[in-house]
Amino acid sequence: MPLGWAGDREGPRDECGVFGIYAPGHEVSRLAYFALYALQHRGQESAGIAAADRGGNIMTRRELGLVSQVFSENDLRTLAGELAIGHVRYSTTGSNAWENSQPVHRSEGTNGSRSELALAHNGNLINAVELHDELVGRGVTFSSTSDSEIVAALLATHPAERIEDAIADVLPRLQGAFSIVAMTKEEVVAFRDPHGLRPLALGVIADVGDAASPEGKSGQERTRRNDSDRYCVASESCAFDIIGASFMRDVAPGEIVTLGRGGLESRRVDSEARKAFCVFEYIYFARPDSRMNGQVLQVARARMGEILAREAPADADLVIPVPDSGNAAARGYARASGLPQDDGFVKNRYVARTFIQPGQELRKHGLRMKFNPLPEVVAGKRLVVVDDSIVRGNTTRQIVQMLRDAGASEVHMRISAPPIKHPCHYGIDMSTREEMIAHERSVEQIARELGCDSLAYLSLDGVYEAVGATRATHCDACFTGQYPLDGTDEAAGKYALEVAAT
Ligand code: SF4
User: Same domain, yes or no, for 296 and 269?
Assistant: First the structure.
């Protein structure tokens, strides 16, 4: 968890949240704004919305900053229209320039019906270099270093009349992780990589009866729904709750969903690919009130805590969470172990990235900006401290020391995920292998480094048991090093070098 001194969790950081909506008769930019607000945890460095009336020009507003900082009332009035897409972004080091904020907006298409296109992307392409070189060879120019603009350019320059046809042709050429929401002047189209690495959910703002299911649809087969329905797509279902939409289902891996004049249309491309949904979404990234693959994450995380208590009991007096990331798992651990639970820390919820730098004098107290231990709760106690992950260990080390300073007699760390040992190349910013505390260290060595009395991680089997899933349909490469897409390590490394040189 890279700890900005200001107290950001020193954790892996997701690189984006996306949203799209088609709602005739509604001014949708305000709905997109609130949906992005709900997705803010997926990216805090930039935010953007593109909106249009059917047939009108696409207006885009994107800027560095939080959703609440980027958009004014006036911006939302200017972003008029009944279809919109939105994006929040966390960028990797060195690439947080305005140019890389999204939605990407391109208008060089030669086809009259698609002279403009906006696109928002969550994920990471591992064959971006090849695609970029091919486009440059065709005379296409780029204004950013983002792989999202590569996809936008591939679609905007495609000769197919309908964007869905362009996507169906381009999609098999994209390797890596992508949950993408695009819009033309007429419709919103969302699509997900055939492995289903990153999440994408479909919602409806109407009482529409049975949800259309992608099951059994393949090739170019389509489903249609009522023309009067209003639909939305989002990285997580929590974005639907805030705007009064209902979760219908997850967009299926390899599915292209069109929200437009014809209601909801769906087609599948390459439904045979090995499924590889990111198991870390269940553990860490997604909001606890989101549902993914039939799981409400708050419930799944509590189950992880219960299984952790079974796998790694501790002779202790009290269970406390690292707030808020360890809350649900701590509840589960306490329930299963029979130990009492309390809050050992008070968390300051108003620490933001824009916080004034503390200077050298206060830097060593940085974490206290976010967590303050309660001596009245922890003094003299043998504590079980539950958190959801450890990447580099800097935050955990400080947490252990703070609890000892507050009088805890023993600190037993319990982590509701396996040790993280490998970087992610599918859209999550983690540290390098060498920076990870679990890299080439045993659990006992890590415990010594952290200064805790004992340390235990949830097993990978325990994670899958908690979410009722199997390895065969998921990615767990950051724990195992087994990347589900061939050539991931080399391809991703190559792209990183290319971008760094840009
Ligand atoms: S490597 Fe880890 S974080 Fe990345 S997609 Fe796989 S499980 Fe998720």
Answer: no
Q: Residue 119's Cα: distance from chain center in Å?
A: 17
Looking at this protein, which amino acid is placed at residue 309? A
Is residue 54 assigned to a domain?
yes
Q: Give the chain's domain count.
A: 2
User: In the annotation, is 16 catalytic?
Assistant: yes
| Statement to judge: residues 262 and 345 lie in one domain | no
CB under 6 Å to ligand 1: residues? 197, 278-280, 424, 426, 428, 475-478
Any domain includes 281: no
d(CA 131, CA 303): 42
List pLDDT tens digits, range 351-387.
655 445 556 666 666 677 788 999 999 999 999 999 9
Fill in the DSSP letter of residue 41. Answer: G
424-443 per-position pLDDT tens digit: 989 887 778 889 999 999 99
- Residue 496 inside a domain? The answer is no
Q: Which atom of ligand 1 is nearest to the CA of 427?
A: 4
